[in-house]
Amino acid sequence: RSVMEKILQRKSSRMRNAQRAWQESPEGVKMVKFRTSLPAYKEKDRLLASIARNQVLVISGETGCGKTTQLPQYVLESEIETGRGAFCNIICTQPRRISAMAVSERVSMERGENLGETVGYKVRLEGMKGKNTHLLFCTSGILLRRLLGDRNLNGVTHVFVDEIHERGMNEDFLLIVLKDLLPRRRDLRLILMSATLNAELFSNFFGGAPTIHIPGFTYPVRAHFLEDILEITGYKLTSFNQIDDYGQDKLWKTQRQLLPRKRKNQITALVEDTLKKSTFESYSSKARDSLANWTPDCIGFNLIEAVLCHICRKERPGAALVFMTGWDDINCLRDQLKAHPLLGDPNRVLLLTCHGSMATSEQKLIFEKPPPNVRKIVLATNMAEASITINDIVFVVDCGKAKETTYDALNNTPCLLPSWISKASARQRKGRAGRVQPGECYHLYPRCVYDAFADYQLPELLRTPLNSLCLQIKSLQIGTIGEFLSAALQPPEALAVQNAVEFLKMIGALDEGENLTNLGRYLSMLPVDPKLGKMLIMGAVFRCLDPVLTVVSGLSVRDPFLLPQDKKDLAGTAKSRFSAKDYSDHMALVRAYEGWKDAEREGSGYDYCWRNFLSAQTLQAIHSLRKQFNFILKDVGLLDADSNTSNSLSHNQSLVRAIICSGLFPGIASVVHREKSMSFKTMDDGQVLLYANSVNAKYQTIPYPWLVFGEKVKVNTVFIRDSTGVSDSILLLFGGNLLKGEMAGHLKMLNGYIDFFMDPSLAECYWNLKEELDKLVQK
Ligand code: ADP
Ligand code: MG
């Protein structure tokens, strides 16, 4: 042991020498000067003293004051300086991969090192760290996964959990696990960092842990609401159609499509009426509510364009940051702006995008200074709200919305729709403009809508289905799910927990006693929704992986089939061309994707997409996700290195259909044929409707008794989106725990997939069983 100690001591003194050498170098001196100018520096000694004295500490401070880049670094530096560098092991979690990567890069640079030396990062499927890494930035998901295998976090000395104010599901989950761990690891230090001032909530959760606030300095930012913006830009909102521009957002289009005509007319009339009035203040509260519900996205790309033009023509120099709801919108808006004579001119405007899935090279551009006389405009999702700081922003354009999942435990139906942000978020967005000089913030909604915002956003734990989370809790072996979650900062409803447990039992991830099955164990290792994870596992076991990868990726990304409002019929026809009468949107997706791959090979991918109303960007995203899933399956040992065998049955359409069913169950609707019409019923919603763009919506009759579907969306009635027709026998064998008695035995076998890995011929036997059953049913 003492030999080990000696080695570490020697390493520690090398680390100290290197650190001092950098701090005394000319570059290092400059960096130190910058770093000491940050507000966090003033609190440095107090922070370090408090960390030494307390096991848990809560720190809050304005975005940009230096929490993320400085605090973990202070601890690292002080450990190195006191000759304990090689003994410390600091982890700092981030809610998003891109911030983990960007921050670790920045901190390495501040230390005059390359990434992967003392400072590294680790995110899903990627990482940069070495044996000398003592400060690791990772996503909260990665730390949770690490806790799965190493419940005591052996060797870790400090854990920083960043951006806890966002109340992400993983962060809330981490806090429960860490709270449980603290008594067992008296030496471990936990530091929670938050941007806004709800520090007490977290302090109370940890039995009154001390809190430190870092006072920040930001320049004043002037807020402009829609009413002022219309005046400033001279943009005229005269009718509903005009503010409908933002209807490029597909989701919003869907919402509108789904509205009954009467309601649509009412809303149109209301909006037209209210827009005629010169002031927004005069709305009755009822009209205001309706407006708040129904004009969100319709503020319009054209309006954003007008605001950006105004900034470029009339305003002082400084970069602009536009908050959008998602990737789709960002891309659409970028295309529109690129075509604009001023905003699309690369000599005058540097147009950049910032979202979770962009390439690293593109990320860096965001932080760089643009050439002289060129204005930088960054289109971003709400990740630019707190986790990423772009210093030179002077103008912020806030669309007022963010995409978030909402979940209604009663209906057990998740929806992913853009919804209004909270007052806290709006303040945060505005604050991004005042980092280096006084700024301007353009909120693209009337002041009265702002007044109706909630103070804070609901924690993710309370607005998403808990399926994945419950599976993780099970694999952590930390008590019953209910007990565990009741220890959360704000525990979810019992009904939501019960729904999740029922679901996990139904798909065979938990047995009747709520114990993890073999399937469950594998599912907990796959970082995807359990439904999709199950489909992947089944695709691998039954050797039809390729089409299944496409379906799973498509369901995780989004539908690549476009549905332009004015060409719905043409788009619908284009989509049906891929369906070849097999009554499946999922198969249509597989064909469309394969066709695209062929076209790409011949260099006509763009043309192909254009002809078929497909989004090349989405297909590209599906393409890269497929690769990632393939990698993960290999990683957890579900695929042989030789992947040829995994596709020996891919041509079997009926098998692929069965595998789709095995993943999507219990998303199942029965097809009820009446004379000339059809209706559909799910297990718990009663009657549901098919989404207009589904290939199955085109038929008078469907020769299958069941439709399996991936997603249902609740608007006024419940709609099911993509569906695939399946037979009775497929449903019986692949549907999950539908059967009792003798057949249930076969199902147990199916759900004990591990058998299949041992003996792949069992999969074939199983498939033969299906053929037998088919014959039986036909008799
Ligand atoms: P916080 O976590 O409190 O929001 P950060 O630690 O992320 O603050 O950032 C502190 C400061 O460091 C920022 O205000 C900015 O000046 C600087 N900074 C952070 N990241 C970068 C970067 N990638 N490039 C240049 N400067 C950066
Ligand atoms: Mg931060």
Can you lay out the helices and strands and say which pair or pack?
Layout (H helix, E strand, L loop, with lengths): L1 H23 L1 H11 L2 H4 L1 H10 L2 E6 L5 H15 L8 E5 L2 H14 L8 E5 L2 E3 L6 E5 H10 L8 E4 L7 H13 L7 E6 L4 H7 L5 E4 L6 E4 L1 H8 L6 H4 L6 H9 L2 H16 L8 H10 L6 H14 L4 E5 L3 H12 L10 E6 L5 H8 L7 E6 L12 E6 L2 E8 L4 E8 L2 H9 L7 E5 L3 H5 L15 H10 L4 H6 L7 H13 L11 H8 L4 H12 L3 H12 L11 H9 L8 H17 L3 H8 L3 H20 L17 H12 L3 E7 L2 E6 L3 E5 L15 E4 L2 E3 L3 E3 L2 E4 L1 H7 L7 H10 L2 H5 L2 H18 L1
Parallel strand pairs: 1-7, 1-8, 2-5, 2-6, 3-5, 6-7, 9-16, 10-12, 10-13, 11-12, 13-16, 19-22
Antiparallel strand pairs: 3-4, 14-15, 17-18, 17-20, 18-19, 20-23, 21-22
Helix pairs in contact: 1-2, 5-6, 7-8, 13-14, 20-22, 20-23, 23-24, 24-25, 24-30, 25-27, 25-29, 27-28, 30-31, 31-34
The chain binds adenosine-5'-diphosphate and magnesium ion.
